[in-house]
Amino acid sequence: MRAILALGVLTVALTTAGCGSSDEPKEEEPPMKVEDTVFGDLIGTQDKARDRSNAAVELHREALDKRLEEDEGAPKEEPAED
Fold it and tell me: Among 46, 24, 26, 25, which Cα is nearest to 35's?
């Protein structure tokens, strides 16, 4: 009989304890910027590599454009007479 009574009291105590909490929900903190985490150096390295690659591609594009303009603007060569 005591076991049943103790079980009943325990059940009521657990039920009332789980019904709600007096703690107010905490405000969520905004996520950290990637630059502020341990991966920040990696992001910076990727950006530097991307910038260098883009600069090299741009220089190559400019050289090709200049060459095309020179080739298209050059007078046509007449066939050599032998």
Answer: 46
Place of tokens 């789980």: 18
Please answer whether residues 19 and 27 qualify as being in contact, where contact means their C-beta atoms are separated by less than 8 angstroms.
no
Global confidence as pTM: 0.42
Tell me the pLDDT tens digit for each residue of 13-35. Answer: 777 765 655 666 678 888 888 77
The contacts of residue 31 (CB under 8 Å, 6+ apart) are none
CA–CA gap between residue 66 and residue 53 (Å, rounded):
20
Residue 34 · residue 43 · CB < 8 Å: yes
